[in-house]
Amino acid sequence: MERVLTVAEMREAERYTESVLGLPESTLIERAGVALADEIIKRFAGGRVLVCVGRGNNGKDGKTLAKILSARHGFSVSVFNAETAFFKLFDKKFDIIVDCLFGTGLNREVTGRYKTAIEKINESGAFVISCDIPSGINGDSGKVMGAAVKADLTIAVQEYKTGLFLGDGIEYSGETVARDIGISVWTENCAHKITDKDAATLFPERKRTSNKGDFGRVAVVGGSKSYSGSVILSKNALSAYKTGAGYSQIAVPECIFNGVMGLDPECVLTALSDDGNSVKFDKDALLPLMRNDAIAFGMGMGVTEGVYDSLRFLLENYNGRLLIDADGLNALAKFGKEPLKNKKCQAVLTPHIGEFCRLSGKEKEEVLNNPVELAKDFAAEYGVTLLLKNAVSVITDGKAVYLNVTGNCGMAKGGSGDVLSGLLAGMLLRKEDLGFTVAAGAYLFGKAGDIAAKTHGNTFTVTATDIISAMPCAVREIIS
Predict the structure, then answer these.
(1) What is the 3-state secondary structure (H, E, C) of the chain?
(2) How many whole angstroms separate alpha carbon 225 and alpha carbon 276?
(3) Rounded to an integer, what distance in angstroms lies between the CA atom of residue 50 and that of residue 123?
């Protein structure tokens, strides 16, 4: 896993390295300049380079970089200092512009000559490289502070920062790479992002003598007469057993049973009592579902008392792993979250931002500005694992935090969340730590979306079913 630090965590690491380990700031600045130069030299044989610097340590990193590149054959280097604001430099044509105006400590709106410099960089047409974080992006929230550099590549010094991925950061950072310069990061309480290597641990080689009973049972409970498609997508993700489940079962209201029958013969199909549109509470119908090791509940069910009472019964009586999505979450928000505190099972909640706002009572802007801490607080209060879905999702059990950066805007379509629920339900059969398992599932889902977009050649035409089709390729890439 790769660490992702807040501004405060990075500052503490720098303080510890300098004051306790005795490594001077000047040495770290020199190393940062070398790391930036190495990454540029690795990618470019030469070219005209403009290094834009400010007055902080980020600017000192840039000045060091300029000296190193100037000594290299093939690079012609100029330096723009925002404190002198000699904007005529931007009239020249540069192949590469390196942004070292601000570091991660920016906490106010960008104005004046710095804003003008950022606008000039973005208008240049050059390949833009940002040092540590694109200037103008908040180091924690990823919010644009009035104006921000749009980078093609961001070279994070020592560790990734949360602002690179959250909020607007993921849009402005371009490709991201972290370079170690010897700062001692001793905390493991920071956020982490999953890699292929991490996700691969959930797909170990299976014995040839295995049987389907070795790999667990999953049920997907959802659908209504108004919304039958969502549960079918979840079922599809499971019925092909693409995440390795041994058995999968689908439970739908009786009113849509005939419409679902035969669509995927691999799945066991069960009818639940309904009120003509959605499920009504029926203890006897729910009891057989509890033989499954994992259950996904809520997709397309409608927000009714019958749905809420059924969910409350599962929470308080089921002892497996229960994933709650969509209308399951909306039912909790409408009728009360108390069953979460009385649960017998391990619960996973997968809200998007709007659903989380309804659950938590927070305003959208507040959640977007501080998703990690709000997600952690909610997960800790209710004893759940929370996957807060967004362009970059936050996964937390109230202690550990994971950020998932795979995926693309083509996945922002109806049905994608349902596919994720089905995929995750299959992943929950693993015995590993629940938070890590959910994070790895989100990583796989995003990777499948990326493969689907690559297959299509664009993000416009990707659909939820395309993501399902890409899952085998995603697993193959992870385990290869």
Answers:
(1) CEEEECHHHHHHHHHHHHHHCCCCHHHHHHHHHHHHHHHHHHHCCCEEEEEEECCCHHHHHHHHHHHHHHCCCCEEEEEEECCCCCHHHHHCCCCEEEEECCCCCCCCCCCHHHHHHHHHHHHCCCEEEEECCCCCECCCCCCECCCCCCCCEEEEECCEEHHHCCCCHHHHCCEEEEECCCCCCCCCCCEEECCHHHHHCCCCCCCCCCCHHHHCEEEEECCCCCCCHHHHHHHHHHHCCCCCCCEEEEEEEHHHHHHHCCCCCCCEEEEECECCCCECCCHHHHHHHHHCCEEEECCCCCCCHHHHHHHHHHHHHCCCEEEECCHHHHHHHHHCCHHHHCCCCEEEECCEHHHHHHHHCCCHHHHHHCHHHHHHHHHHHHCCEEEEECCCEEEECCCCEEEECCCCHHHCCCCHHHHHHHHHHHHCCCCCCHHHHHHHHHHHHHHHHHHHHHHHCCCCCCCHHHHHHHHHHHHHHHHC
(2) 8
(3) 14
Strand order in the sheet with 247-253: 160-161, 2-5, 191-193, 401-404, 393-396, 385-388, 346-349, 321-324, 294-297, 217-221, 247-253, 268-272
Q: Residue 352 pLDDT more than 70?
A: yes
Q: Are 150 and 122 in contact (CB under 8 A)?
A: yes
Q: How far apart are CA 163 and CA 183, in angstroms?
A: 19
Among candidates 461, 448, 386, 384, which has minimal Cα distance to 419?
448
Count of C-beta atoms within a 10 Å radius of residue 339: 20
377: tokens are: 């607080």
Burial string for 372-408 (b: 16+ CB within 10 Å, else e) reads: bebbbbbbeebebbbbbbbbbbbbbbbebbbbbbbbb
Distance CA 420, CA 300 (A): 14
pLDDT level of residue 239 (50, 70, 90 thresholds): low
The tens digit of pLDDT for each residue in 81-131 reads 999 989 999 999 999 999 999 999 898 999 999 999 999 999 999 999 999
* Cα angle, residue 41 at apex, residues 40 and 44 outer, rounded to 5°: 80
Residue 284 φ then ψ, to 5°: -65, -30
The residue-averaged pLDDT of 380-409 equals 97
CA distance 393 to 355: 14
Domains of the chain from N-terminus onward: 2-190 (3.40.50.10260), 196-479 (3.40.1190.20)
Nearest to 297 by CA among 436, 448, 424, 391: 424
CA separation for the pair 449, 409 (Å, rounded): 9
Predicted structure pTM score: 0.94
